[in-house]
Design a protein that fits this description.
globular, iron-sulfur, single chain, 19 helices, 4Fe-4S, Rossmann fold, 5-stranded mixed β-sheet, Dimethylsulfoxide Reductase, domain 2, 2Fe-2S_ferredoxin-type, iron, alpha/beta, Ubiquitin-like (UB roll)
Length: 685
């Protein structure tokens, strides 16, 4: 540790730390444009100038290492004059169009110009002008505003792993773009808007919509993938106008994937905003009373064993536990949350959680990916894997379709279960890399389990983990990567039928809670179907009664991410029309069905959640634990077929019911799907 004195304050910082970090440790705020905590150091804006004792001139604090006994001064005449000179140079070519700039009110250049700018300009020549670049349907460019901080280039290259942005020419002629004009193909492109310190990169869908001081901010959780990204929902006049990430170093750091950021316009389209009841073979608008009366009349007399319920991928924990309790009160145990057919053994949390935890990826030293493409299934989690590959030796083996570009170096091992067999008996060459690792980990994609031999694949993957010492009291390297934000909570709450229960026949009544992915063709023609959800798709079209629910931005709700971390989202806007929160709908339905649920408030429902699973008693925490029981899930590894693994998401931009209703995501699919087709696998970096 080095002792550094900053403006008379002595601090200790690690050897190799920068002067800027030492200043921050002392509580001094240093202006910067090019420096970013999660990117490499560029040192090209010079705004972070400070004075060091005995140094002949100001130094750039972001790139200058500390030395023991160093004395730093952050506010001297030399420092102030240096920063003012830098600011004057930055503003020479800047268009000064703050009144029409979408970055206005959130602009680092604006903020620093207040502190270090001049009230006049000494520059008389013509200003530089740069042609705007097209980089896709999500990011808007006004490149005359660019100050060449290169944050965007470094983000694309280092974090996203898609090095499509770069600089051409030098000096005043320098321009940042994509060389050949094209849309950015990364699923993390929206983060460029956040890290740009000026208005050169802004949100295309949000252009000229609002000012930041007009918005109401609500903390919530993204549910469009299973990472559990912490988000902030910005609203005005009851409408969602913007979604941005919140910093959480254990989950998403400060990044957000594009579908979670830009698909919110789907919340306003194709919505179910009133109850519907089928009469004479056609769905017709109805009142809540008529809908509940129809449910009570049609389900009266149906024995509990002939009633079934299924929950979908985006359902909150409060609604799931309410429906489970209602089914129990009606005498039904025909429950299902694996509407995609994934053969997940629900007997132990180890069999469905991301046990290493997202932050635990940083501690692993080898990785085997089976039947998953984390780049599209969980882009933010994939960025953390990429960061780990750049930090040091980290062999990555991939079992799945050939040619998938994961954005980091990996070794393609094979297409299907035959590779798992070779890893089981130790004959595969990648077994040596796993054997040398001290903390190897395995990621099993949910898509690899949604097959007829899914139970065998799950059992085989577990045995691969056992053979390669991934399961120890001090380390748990077996991970299942869920796809959406509601899938883990349903498994935690046991929304599955007992494995030994054989239904007496097809259901006479079926309750579909947000089960948009449920195959409606499997439902018998004479089955009475209740659909409860917020968007109407195939499952809703098959329903006899439709109950309009609330989307994730429209309710106080609890979600569980793939690692088993319970997080709470908050109501940002009210549901449209007559739509209501899902647990309240189920609670009201229990009255007319003669099976009244014993809770009337959100606090009572959450107390029931904590009783059902300890995960809900400790929100915002993911349990890090080893594996003391290596007994595997039910399934025979020898029953695996030779069918290659198929990836569950072929269209990242329209993978869920909300994004399928989004015009922005439809435009992304039109523009980007050909560009994101599988490419040749990257060589190990």
């Amino acid at each position: 540790m080095a002792k550094v004195t900053v403006d008379g304050i002595e601090v200790e910082v690690p050897n190799g730390a920068s002067v800027l970090q030492a200043c921050e440790a002392a509580g001094k705020e240093i202006p910067r444009f090019c420096y970013h905590e999660r990117l490499s150091v560029a040192g090209n804006c010079r705004m972070c100038l400070v004075e060091v004792e005995k140094a002949p001139k100001p130094i750039a604090s972001c790139s200058y290492p500390v030395a023991d006994g160093m004395k730093v001064f952050t506010d001297t005449p030399m420092v102030r004059n240096g920063r003012r000179g830098v600011m004057e140079f930055l503003l020479i070519n800047h268009p000064l169009d703050c009144p029409i700039c979408d970055q206005g009110g959130e602009c680092d250049l604006q903020d620093q110009a207040v502190a270090y700018g001049m009230d006049r300009s000494r520059f008389q020549e013509g200003k530089r002008a740069v042609k705007d670049k097209y980089v896709g349907p999500l990011v808007k460019t006004i490149m005359t505003r660019c100050i060449h901080c290169t944050r965007c280039i470094r983000f694309c290259t280092e974090v996203a792993g898609v090095p499509e942005l770069g600089a051409i020419s030098r000096g005043e002629d320098m321009e940042i773009g994509t060389y050949v004009e094209k849309a950015l193909t990364t699923e993390l492109s929206g983060n460029l808007i956040d890290i740009c310190p000026v208005g050169a990169l802004t949100s295309r869908p949000y252009a000229f919509v609002s000012r930041p001081w007009e918005l109401r901010h609500t903390d919530s959780v993204d549910v469009l993938d299973a990472t559990g990204v912490n988000i902030r929902v910005d609203t005005r006049a009851g409408e969602v106008l913007r979604i941005q990430p919140r910093t959480n170093d254990e989950v998403n750091e400060e990044w957000l994937h594009d579908r979670g950021r830009f698909s919110f316009d789907g919340l306003k389209r194709r919505r179910l905003d009133r109850p519907w009841v089928k009469r004479d073979g056609k769905l017709r608008p109805a009142t809540w009373t008529e809908a509940f009366d129809t449910i009570a009349a049609r389900m009266k007399g149906i024995p509990g064993e002939r009633i079934g319920a299924a929950v979908g991928d985006l359902v909150d924990a409060e609604a799931i536990v309410a429906l489970k309790d209602l089914m129990a009160a009606l005498g039904s145990r025909n429950l299902e949350c694996r509407v995609d057919g994934a053969a997940i053994d629900a007997s132990r949390p180890d069999f469905w959680r991301f046990n290493t935890t997202i932050a635990g990826i940083d501690e692993a030293d080898a990785l085997l990916i089976v039947g998953s493409n984390p780049r599209q299934e969980a882009p933010v989690l994939n960025a953390r894997i990429r960061r780990r590959t750049l930090a040091g030796p980290f062999p990555v083996g991939y079992v799945g379709p050939r040619g998938v570009n994961l954005t980091y170096g990996h070794e393609w091992l094979g297409e299907g279960p035959a590779t798992l067999r070779a890893l089981l008996d130790g004959s595969h060459t990648f077994s040596e890399a796993l054997g040398r690792a001290e903390r190897p980990m395995l990621i099993l994609g949910r898509g690899a389990l949604a097959r007829t031999d899914g139970a065998a694949v799950l059992a085989a993957a577990w045995q691969v983990a056992v053979r390669h010492d991934m399961l120890r009291p001090d380390w748990h390297g077996f991970n299942v990567l869920q796809l959406f934000g509601g899938q883990t909570a349903a498994l935690e709450l046991g929304f599955v039928a007992p494995p030994d229960m054989a239904p007496p026949g097809p259901p006479q009544a079926l309750w579909l809670l947000g089960a948009d992915g449920f195959d409606a063709s499997r439902i018998p023609a004479d089955t009475f179907v209740v659909y409860q959800g917020h968007h109407g798709e195939a499952a809703a079209a098959r329903a006899d009664v439709i109950l309009p629910g609330a989307a994730y931005t429209e309710k106080e709700a609890t979600w569980v991410n793939t690692e088993g971390r319970a997080q709470r989202g908050r109501l940002a806007v009210y549901p449209p029309g007559e739509a209501r929160e899902d647990w309240k709908i189920i609670r009201a339905a229990s009255e007319v069905l003669g099976a009244r649920l014993p809770y009337d408030t959100l606090a009572a429902v959450r107390a029931r959640l904590a009783e059902a699973s300890p995960v809900f008693a400790r929100p915002d925490r993911a349990e890090r634990r080893g594996c003391d029981d290596v007994a595997g899930p039910a399934g025979d590894p020898s029953a695996m077929s030779d069918t290659p693994f198929a990836l569950p998401i072929t269209n990242y931009w329209q993978a869920d019911v909300i994004s399928r209703a989004s015009e922005t995501m439809a435009e992304c699919a039109r523009v980007l799907l050909p560009a994101t087709a599988p490419a040749a696998p990257m060589a190990a970096e």
